Amino acid sequence: MAEAISTYASDVLPDETVDVVVIGGGAAGLNGALMLARSRRSVVVIDSGTPRNAPAEAMHGFIVLDGTPPTELLRRGREQVRQYGGRVVFGEVASAEPAVPSNEGDLRFTVTLADGRALTARRVLVATGLRDVLPYVPGLAEHWGRSVVHCPYCHGWEVRDETIGVLATGPASVHHALLFRQLSDDLVYFTGDTELDEENRARFAARGIRIVDTPVDEVVKADDGGIAGVRLADDTFVARRILAVATQMQARTDGLAGLKLPMEDLPDNMGRHFASAMAGTTEVPGVWVAGNATDPIAQVGASAAAGALAGAHINALLAAADTDAALAAARGAATA
């Protein structure tokens, strides 16, 4: 799930071919663009303005910037990319696909936006992030990112010592519960449609984690706008102020089918992501991926680092391609 942020001043889409188009304006995309722009590469970031962490009040686990609102981090990131000559364009990608190579034989890609504008680039960095898919429980989604959380490292300190309920969605929820037990002594595990074996029941009992096998019918809203608790199928009310849910994580693929990027399923039906290798390289020549689109569990700092690594790798290969083209031209001139 993601919510749109306010629109911002958008740069003009250039008519000429650029070195790199970055699809996605989150931490990974902006940091990749920053590395490229600082290397004097022409780079354009296409940003739909729907970051994964938009509902959160602040991001955490990123040294120095811990506690910074996500919107502020992105605002500063766009400003810094522009400081080095990069462009940030607000828009949605309708299609992205290989184009006819240049006269020098170098790769080309065409990215078309939903409003019909198009851009040609030599290389592509996909940093679209992912969507969190919540289980359907009435009243759950409206509290996402506040009273309904998923990451103990992103939100854990803020929910410490609260009454926490873990809504199980699969095998990963067992580990989820143990992490949130570190944050609160009052933890209830709602098994829902999942199975919990006797070994894990014994482990939970040893840690004082209560288990409720009756299905959850709805999330009950508190007078202060947060969560009061959950109502079970037998009409029992269980008071909880925080609910933790391991979401299904789906890489954002809108408009990217033409790139034919390989994808992989996460274990235990936890979602689907783009496959990548060292520095975000993919099986598709000229296309890299970085951030949550390929590494669903990466926090902001890890996503930014992955973007920087991909940007540096793209620049290195472009430098080699530039040299190959210059050498071919020089040899052609010498034999003319």
Overview of this protein structure:
This protein is of the alpha/beta class and 336 residues long. The chain folds into 2 domains: 18-131 and 248-335, FAD/NAD(P)-binding domain, CATH 3.50.50; 135-245, FAD/NAD(P)-binding domain (3-Layer(bba) Sandwich), CATH 3.50.50. It is built from 6 helices and 19 strands. The protein has helices at residues 27-38, 70-83, 152-155, 172-181, 198-206, 300-335, and strands spanning 18-23, 43-47, 87-90, 93-98, 109-113, 118-126, 130-133, 148-149, 164-167, 187-190, 210-212, 216-221, 227-232, 237-239, 242-245, 248-251, 263-265, 271-274, 287-289. Strands 1, 2, 3, 4, 5, 6 and 19 form a 7-stranded mixed beta sheet that branches. α1 runs parallel beside α2 and α1 packs parallel to α6.
Please describe the structure with a list of short key phrases separated by commas or semicolons.
336 residues, alpha/beta, FAD/NAD(P)-binding domain, 2 domains, seven-stranded mixed β-sheet, five-stranded parallel β-sheet
Radius of gyration of CA atoms, rounded to a whole number = 23 Å
Shape: elongated
Give the oligomeric state. Answer: single chain
CA-CA gap between termini: 60 Å
Number of domains: 2
Report helical residue fraction.
25-40%
- CATH homologous superfamily annotation of the largest domain: FAD/NAD(P)-binding domain
Q: Any low-confidence stretches, pLDDT <50, length ≥5?
A: none
- What percentage of the residues does DSSP assign to strands (E)? 25-35%
Task: Specify the structural class.
Answer: alpha/beta
Q: How would a textbook summarize the main sheet?
A: 7 strands, mixed
Classify the fold: give the CATH topology of the largest domain.
Answer: FAD/NAD(P)-binding domain
Which CATH class of the largest domain?
Alpha Beta
